[in-house]
Design a protein that fits this description.
The complex is a heterodimer of chains A (342) and B (293). Chain A is α+β, with helices and mostly antiparallel strands. Chain A has helices at 40-48, 83-88, 97-107, 123-135, 153-170, 181-185, 204-209, 214-219, 273-276, 314-320; strands at 7-14, 20-27, 29-33, 54-56, 68-71, 141-145, 174-178, 189-194, 197-202, 224-234, 237-242, 245-250, 260-265, 271-272, 283-294, 297-303, 307-313, 327-331, 338-341. Chain A is 25% helix and 34% strand. Chain A starts with 6 loop residues before the first strand and ends with a strand. Chain B is mainly alpha-helical and 293 residues long. Chain B is built from 12 helices and 2 strands. Chain B has helices spanning 44-66, 78-109, 115-127, 130-141, 146-153, 162-186, 190-198, 203-232, 235-240, 247-257, 264-274, 276-292; strands at residues 2-11, 14-23. The chains are: A alpha+beta (342), B mainly alpha (293). The A-B interface holds A 45, 48-50, 62-66, 68-70, 72, 74, 76, 78-80, 89-90, 117, 119, 133-134, 136-137 and B 189, 191-192, 194-202, 209-210, 213-214, 291-293. Chain A: It comes from Acidithiobacillus montserratensis. Chain A: Keywords: ATP-binding, Nucleotide-binding. Chain A: This is ABC transporter ATP-binding protein.
C-alpha cells in the first residue's frame, strides 16, 4: 500500500438533496473545490453511504461495510469517550484493542493525550484523533469535509502539512472537499465542482495557471473579468479588445480572430503605472470607487470597463494617496492575463 | 417575553427537567444613544425570587414543625402501603421504560407524514385529568368490558388487584417518560450516529454504543420523572385499584379515618422514597455533563 500516489476512480450519481453526476480521479491527496451549496458534503455522504446514491466503487455495500474513513466537519468525535476510546471504537473487542488504539494515536503524534476527552482537545488535535479513528478501520479511501474550517489561521498550515504527510505515509487515497483554494495548492490533484459536475481537474499547478472557466477562476481567487474579442495574433501574443480597451495576453494556443473570450487576472497582479517604473504594455484607465484595508494590504475597488479589484501593499497604497473618485492608470503584465473561452 | 414549557433541556451544561420557566430577554439597540435601563430596580429580581422561593418551600418547613416527633408512629397498615408502593412503582417504571424507550426513539428519529398527529395523540393521556383517566381505564379494563373479560379469562383481573395497580401507575408515568426520553434522543447529534455507522457499527450497535450513552442523562431524568409520577399517582389508582393500597391512597384513608396528625409519619416516608432518586439523578447528571461538554 505504500507506493504513492494511491489512485482511485470514483463515480457518483445523486439526486437529493443536490443533483450530482460526476467522475473523479482521486490521486493521493485530492482536493475538490466548490462554492457553498455546490453539494460537496452531500457527495462525501453519498460516497460513505449515508445518502441514497449510485456510487462506484463500494456502492453495493451497506454503510458499515464500506472501507471508507469519513471525517465530517467538526470531526464528530464521541464526546463520551476518551481519545483512545474514540480511536478504538471501530476495532473489534479484544485484549489488543487498547494497544492498537495507542499505536494509532502514536502515529498521529497524540499518544500522550490518549486519556483526554474530546472537549479537552484543540481543533487540530481533534482532527488527528478523528484521522486515527478513521484509519483504525484500514480504509481504502479517506474523505475529509472542509478540513481547514475548524482550524485557526496560525496553526492551519502546520496541521495541514502534518495531515498530508500522514496521509502519504499511510498510502491511502484521500478526497477533501473545500472552498479554500489554499488547501488545493497543497494537493496532488484537484478538481472543480460546479452545478453537479466536474468542470476542470488536474494537478494544482496546471489548474491554478490555466483556469478554463470563469467559475474555476473565481473559486481560485481571480476577481477581475473582462469580456472581449480577439483582434489579432502575433506569435504567442494575442491582442484582445472590448469597448474602450485593448490588452495583450500571452497564449500558446491559437484562437481564431473575432472569437469571443474572457480575460481574467488576480487583484495582486494589477499595479499602478506611475509608481512602478515598469513598462506598461497593458494600460487601463479606471476610477477609484472604494478601498478596504485587508490585513497588511489594501483592496481597491475600481470602476473601469468592468468593476475591477486591485490589491496593493499598505505602503504602496499610502504612497499613492488613493482617494475615492480619483482617476488612475493601472497596468497588467501580458503573462498574468488568463484567457477563458467564453 | 415569559413562557412556560414542559421539557427536558440542557441549561448551562446541566440537564434539567420538568416545568421550565423561561424569560427571553428582549434585546434593544441601546448603543446608538438610546436610554439604558436604570439600575435602580436591580433589587426587585432577588426580592421577587426570594418571595417565590419562600412561598414554595414554606409548607415543607411547616410539616417539620407540625410533626409530633416525640410520638412518631405509623398507623396500622402503613408498612404494607410502603412495600406496595415501592415494589409496584419499581415494576411500573421498569415496564414503562422497556415499552416507552423504543417508541420514544422512533418518535425522535422517524420522519414520516402525519407524525404530528401521533405527537398530539401522545399528549392525550398526559393532559387528561388523572381521575378522568381512571374512569376511562375502569370502563376499558373493567370486568364487564370486552378487554377486561379477555384478561379475566386468562386469570388476570384488572380491578383492585396488583396488576391493576401497576397498570394504573404505568398510565400515569409512561407518557412523561416517553416525552423526556424523546427529547433525550433528539438531543443526540445525528452525525455522531452516522459516523458510528461509517466506523463499521450497525444500527443496533450504534444505538447501544452511541445513542444510549449520549442520551443517558435525559433518559435518567425521564426515569426519575416516571418514578415520581408512579409513586404519587392517586387519581387513576383510586378508581382502578383502591386495593392494594399504596402510599397515596393510604394517606387519604388515614386522613379520612384518623385525622391530619396520623398522616405525617407516612408523609415523611413518602418524601424520603420519592425524592432522593430524582435528586440523585439530577446531581449525577450535572456532574457528568460538566465532564462531557
Amino acid at each position: 500500500m505504500n507506493q504513492a500516489p494511491a489512485t482511485l476512480g470514483l463515480r457518483c450519481q445523486l439526486k437529493q438533496p443536490v443533483a450530482l453526476d460526476l467522475h473523479l480521479q482521486i490521486r493521493g491527496f485530492t482536493v475538490l473545490l466548490g462554492v457553498s451549496g455546490a453539494g460537496k458534503t452531500s457527495l462525501l455522504q453519498a460516497i460513505a453511504g449515508l445518502l441514497p446514491a449510485r456510487v462506484s466503487p463500494f456502492g453495493d455495500l451497506p454503510v458499515e461495510q464500506r472501507p471508507i474513513g469519513y471525517l465530517p466537519q467538526g470531526y464528530a468525535l464521541f464526546p463520551h469517550l476518551r481519545a483512545w476510546e474514540n480511536v478504538a471504537f471501530p476495532l473489534p473487542r479484544s485484549a489488543r484493542r487498547h494497544t492498537e488504539a495507542l499505536a494509532l494515536l502514536q502515529r498521529v503524534g497524540l499518544k500522550e493525550l490518549a486519556e483526554r476527552f474530546p472537549s479537552e482537545l484543540s481543533g487540530g488535535q481533534k482532527q488527528r484523533v478523528a484521522l486515527a479513528r478513521a484509519l483504525a478501520r484500514k480504509p481504502q479511501l479517506l474523505l475529509l469535509d472542509e478540513p481547514t474550517s475548524a482550524l485557526d489561521m496560525a496553526t492551519r498550515d502546520e496541521v495541514l502539512d502534518e495531515l498530508i504527510q500522514e496521509v502519504h505515509a499511510f498510502g491511502i487515497p484521500l478526497l477533501a472537499v473545500s472552498h479554500d483554494p489554499h488547501l488545493a495548492m497543497l494537493a496532488d490533484h484537484m478538481a472543480i465542482l460546479r452545478e453537479g459536475r466536474i468542470i476542470q481537474e488536474g494537478p494544482p499547478v496546471e489548474v491554478f495557471a490555466r483556469p478554463q472557466h470563469q467559475a474555476t477562476a473565481h473559486l481560485l481567487g481571480f476577481r477581475n473579468f473582462l469580456s472581449g474579442r480577439i483582434e489579432a495574433q502575433e506569435n504567442a501574443i494575442l491582442r484582445i479588445a472590448g469597448a474602450g480597451w485593448q490588452l495583450q495576453a500571452e497564449s500558446s494556443s491559437a484562437l481564431p480572430v473575432g472569437s469571443p473570450v474572457q480575460l481574467t487576472w488576480r487583484a495582486e497582479d494589477l499595479f499602478l503605472e506611475e509608481k512602478s517604473g515598469l513598462p506598461c504594455p497593458n494600460r487601463l484607465l479606471v476610477r477609484v470607487r472604494a478601498g478596504r484595508a485587508e490585513g497588511l494590504s489594501t483592496r481597491i475597488y475600481l470602476e473601469g470597463p468592468a468593476p475591477l479589484e486591485m490589491l496593493l501593499s499598505r505602503q504602496q497604497a499610502e504612497a499613492a494617496q488613493i482617494t475615492p473618485g480619483s482617476s488612475l492608470k493601472v497596468c497588467i503584465q501580458p503573462r498574468h492575463l488568463q484567457i477563458l473561452v467564453a | 417575553m415569559l413562557g412556560v414549557d414542559l421539557c427536558v433541556a440542557r441549561v448551562d451544561g446541566a440537564v434539567v427537567w420538568g416545568l421550565r420557566i423561561w424569560d427571553e430577554p428582549v434585546q434593544k439597540m441601546t448603543s446608538w444613544g438610546g436610554r439604558k435601563r436604570p439600575d435602580g430596580t436591580a433589587w426587585l429580581g432577588p426580592i421577587l425570587a426570594a418571595g417565590v422561593f419562600v412561598f414554595l418551600l414554606a409548607p415543607f418547613a411547616a410539616l417539620f414543625f407540625a410533626t409530633d416527633w416525640a410520638d412518631f408512629h405509623f398507623a396500622q397498615g402503613d408498612m404494607g402501603a410502603i412495600r406496595t408502593s415501592l415494589l409496584y412503582s419499581g415494576l411500573a417504571v421498569l415496564l414503562a421504560v422497556l415499552a416507552g424507550t423504543p417508541l420514544a426513539w422512533w418518535l425522535a428519529r422517524g420522519q414520516w407524514r402525519g407524525k404530528w398527529l401521533l405527537d398530539a395523540l401522545l399528549m392525550l393521556p398526559l393532559l387528561t385529568p388523572p381521575l378522568a383517566l381512571g374512569i376511562l381505564l375502569s370502563s376499558f379494563y373493567g370486568p364487564y368490558s370486552p378487554v377486561g373479560s379477555v384478561f379475566s379469562q386468562a386469570g388476570i383481573y384488572l380491578t383492585n388487584t396488583a396488576p391493576a395497580f401497576i397498570l394504573a401507575q404505568i398510565y400515569g408515568a409512561m407518557p412523561y417518560y416517553i416525552i423526556a426520553a424523546r427529547a433525550a434522543f433528539e438531543g443526540v447529534p445525528r452525525d455522531l450516529e452516522q459516523i458510528s455507522r461509517t466506523l463499521g457499527r450497525n444500527r443496533l450497535q450504534t444505538f447501544w454504543g452511541v445513542t444510549l450513552p449520549l442520551a443517558r442523562i435525559g433518559l435518567s431524568a425521564g426515569v426519575a420523572l416516571a418514578w415520581v409520577r408512579a409513586m404519587g399517582e392517586f387519581g387513576i389508582v383510586l378508581i382502578v385499584a383502591y386495593f392494594p393500597q399504596g402510599i397515596p391512597v393510604k394517606l387519604w384513608v388515614n386522613l379520612q379515618d384518623i385525622g391530619l396528625d396520623a398522616v405525617y409519619p407516612l408523609l415523611w416516608i413518602f418524601f424520603l422514597v420519592a425524592v432522593p432518586l430524582p435528586l440523585w439523578i439530577g446531581l449525577r447528571a450535572r456532574r457528568q455533563t460538566q465532564a462531557l461538554f
